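Researcher: Good morning. I'm working through a list of sequences from a screen, and I'd like to move beyond sequence-only analysis. For each chain I'm collecting a predicted structure so we can compare shapes side by side. This is the next one on the list. No need for commentary yet; just the structure.
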Amino acid sequence: MARTRQRWLPALLIPFALAIAVLLGSVQAGATVSLPPKTAEEILAMIARTEVRAFSGTVEQTAELGLPEVPTSGPGIAPGAVSALEFLTGSHTARVYVDGPLRARLQVLDQMAERDVVINGGDAWFYNSRDNSATHLTAPAKPTAPEKYEPRMLPPDMPAPEMPTPEAMASRFLAAVDASTEVTVSESSTVAGRSAYSLVLNPRSTETLVDSVTIDVDSETGLPLGVEVRANGQAEPAYSLAYTQLDLSTPDAELFNFTPPPGATVTEKVLPVKPVPSMAMPSTPVPDPAVVEPEVRGPGASVTGKGWDSVISLPPGSAPAELTSNPQLSQALQPVGGGRALTTSLLSVLILDDGRVYAGMVPLERLQSAAAAQ
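Model: Good morning. Structure tokens for this chain:
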């Protein structure tokens, strides 16, 4: 597992800041089962060696972060708009299909509507049935060169096509495992009808809002099946993401072909090809790091602290629009000295009047201290 400081970014901050990654979540694991005992190191090795490259399944999200319900319609909210904050409240269900690194489909099942993300090589479709709108992104053919090229599927103002699976969420937390984390093994359980080992991450820090992270790992394949995050002082899980159904066979190729329905409003975009370093094939599509983590890699952005205590700061003018101009978000912000703040059981965000933004899985006071020090 990569453990570099550069890779640490609070897993629940990414979907909030970029309005995408958390589209899904989980249900609680099932009854305990009997499995051959394994150490935490052995389970981590299973995850690193997993060879699952194609699958389909149903995932469910539960988020109890203490946020108010977010309206999906009303003054200032565009028809069919999607807010990251919307997916940090309540429960959501979706179907996910993956076949290798560049073929994937996500179907988010809303009440009376459906949202689809379909990735097929150099083609990407984003469809919302609520307003029958679609965006079609295409990348030109890969140039002939010794380097490995992947299409940069999305422009900077659009969400990245990483499939929000338990594996993707688990990798965010596991990338930060270091001396600040105690890693233990809990009772085995069943998830989506499959037996699983339970790996528990306990922060040694007293500054973070996170009490523990439990990752359920398939005993046969090493694939993460569910992630459950508990907040300090909260009896029930604050956030969970897991499969309720999982099929490890290759999905039908037709699932990755998308034709917009009659009457749909279609926006066409052609994107450039961007070189990226060669890497082993992941089990889910890997987006351009510059798109996924602009907070860390973007100009002027910085991280103070490390591990669970990390605070990410964005200079004026560099914050995603979701943080600064979304009418839904404004309703959840509270006034504080010098700006506004969003506080939840797992995540705090501070937006200052001068345009700077601070965020982390830490109390608001830590963000204010970081802002005062700069």
